[in-house]
Amino acid sequence: MPYFDENPLSRLALQAGTTEIELDLRGLPANEALAQVESLLQARQPSSVLIRFDPARGDGRETLFLPLGRRLLEARKAGILRSCLPTSGGDGYAIVLTGEDSAST
Questions:
Q1: Which of 5, 15, 96, 103 gets the most CB atoms within 10 Å of its CB?
Q2: pLDDT for 22-35, tens place per residue?
Q3: How many whole angstroms separate alpha carbon 58 and alpha carbon 39?
Q4: Domain locations in the chain?
Q5: What does the alpha-carbon distance between residue 45 and residue 66 come to, in Å, rounded to a whole number?
Q6: Strands lying side by side in the sheet with 21-24
Q7: Per-residue pLDDT for 105 more than 50?
Q8: Those residues with Cβ within 8 angstroms of residue 58's Cβ, 6 or more apart along the chain or in another chain
Q9: Phi and psi of 58, rounded to 5°?
Q10: Average pLDDT of the chain?
Q11: What is the CATH number of domain 8-104?
């Protein structure tokens, strides 16, 4: 595994502080959190959003990182998202919605 002096994610163009909206899912059950994300994706409003969720605690419980990441990847492939990047802390995603209905393109 390579060693990095700094986190390579910190140099990406879209940083958490540059998003227009923050969706805070911390403390929510997974099904409720994913439902809120689904509502966001269906709204089709062009914007940049920071989606925050609880970080890993080291107790072996699954965080939203993987299930949310899978859903966001599907949305990216469907043309709903222009970009989707994990935050450098692994406790969120910074996304940019296209604002376009993928069925009409």
A1: 96
A2: 999 999 999 999 99
A3: 30
A4: 8-104
A5: 24
A6: 21-24, 48-52, 92-97, 81-86
A7: no
A8: none
A9: 85, 10
A10: 84
A11: 3.30.1370.110
Dist CA 28 CA 64 (whole Å): 10
Q: State the pLDDT confidence band at 53, using cuts at 50, 70 and 90.
A: very high
> Which pLDDT belongs to residue 13?
47
Q: What is the mean pLDDT of residues 9-27?
A: 73
How far is residue 65 from each of residues 55, 85, 103, 105, measured CA to CA in Å? 8, 11, 27, 29
pLDDT score, position 57: 84
Transcribe 45-88 into DSSP letters. ---EEEEE-PPP-SSS---SHHHHHHHHHHHHHTTSEEEEEE-T
What does pTM read for this prediction? 0.79
Alpha-carbon gap, residue 92 to 54, rounded angstroms: 8
Q: Which residues contact 9 (CB under 8 A, 6 or more apart)?
A: 85, 86, 87, 88
